[in-house]
Amino acid sequence: MGEKDHWQQHIQKLHGESIPQAEDLSEFFARWRYSGRFRDLGKPTSTCGLCANTGLRYQFFVVRQDTGEGMWVGSECILNFDLSKEAVQARIRSAARQAAWQAGDGVDEDHLMAMIGQLQTIYLQANAGEQRYLRWLVGKFQRRNGFSPKEIGWLFGASLACGVRLDANLFPMIVRTKQDRQELGSLSVNAKNWLAQGTGEKDWVEKR
Ligand SMILES: [Zn+2]
């Protein structure tokens, strides 16, 4: 069963007859907005209201515009919802004000939201496989506090293809393993130049 089928089944179970059988998912998502409410549970203990994924720490509250009903979804599923450009811009500014990315006890809320807001532009132009990869990247970012050079290369390529200018400050690169170092060697000069505009640069300069 594909992931889309899984979603559709879950959405139908959740919302009963309010969702017609044949409804396109994009129509479903268009009715919902991100409310701006975010919560960090401190531990990976919650469940996504959309995909029923468990083990979530960060949650976003989305509201259905026509009925007012709300649900908490995880940071991967939030990519599908309308995020409100103003809210995302404010987060991007706030995250950029911070001197540097710090891998502390969890992900900074502004950073996560700003990153998701930027990735969404790519996400909305991506095919189903690329969307899956992007959701997976968001989850992995939280576990690892950064991206591998190969992932950075992918993101950079996708941003060029979509005509999106990603803020390098929001995409820290982690170089820890031998494989990371090999991947770093294969990263294009353009991708490295892009990284050098952000705090992500520091990480690879210090460790190579
Ligand atoms: Zn989910």
Describe this entry's structure for a reader.
By secondary structure, the chain is mainly α. The chain has 2 domains: 78 residues, no CATH class; 123 residues, no CATH class. Helix content is 50%, strand content 10%. The C terminus is likely disordered. Bound molecules: zinc ion.
Main attributes of the structure:
208 residues, three-stranded antiparallel beta sheet, 9 helices, mainly alpha, 10% strand, disordered C terminus, binds zinc ion
Topology:
Elements (H helix, E strand, L loop, with lengths): L2 H13 L9 H6 L1 E9 L17 E7 L5 E5 L10 H13 L11 H15 L4 H17 L4 H14 L15 H9 L2 H8 L3 H8 L1
Antiparallel strand pairs: 1-2, 2-3
Helix pairs in contact: 3-4
Bound molecules: zinc ion (ZN).
Percent range for helical residues? 40-55%
Radius of gyration: 18 Å
How many strands, what sense, and barrel or not for the largest sheet? 3 strands, antiparallel
Small molecules held by this entry = zinc ion
